Amino acid sequence: MKMSIGQTIEMIYLDKAGKITQRKIEVHGIRDGRIRATCLSTGLPRVFLTASILSWHPVQGRRYA
Prior knowledge:
Strand order of the largest sheet: 4-3-2-1-5
Radius of gyration: 11 Å
Order of helices and strands: EEEEE
Distance between the termini: 24 Å
Shape: globular
Strand content: over 45%
Mean pLDDT: 92
Number of strands: 5
Oligomer: single chain
Largest sheet: 5 strands, antiparallel
Helix content: under 10%
């Protein structure tokens, strides 16, 4: 499964402090192992490392914030 720009996904992510979180994001760009996105729970722009994504799947239907 390939992630694409404009897609909303739900992911399990390991942050740099070692904390595992579950997030829904809207993907804006993918380049050099980084994903630029908006976190839908906070509404803030974020950058995620692809290597730190433990699991992900596309969100079907409407967007959730």
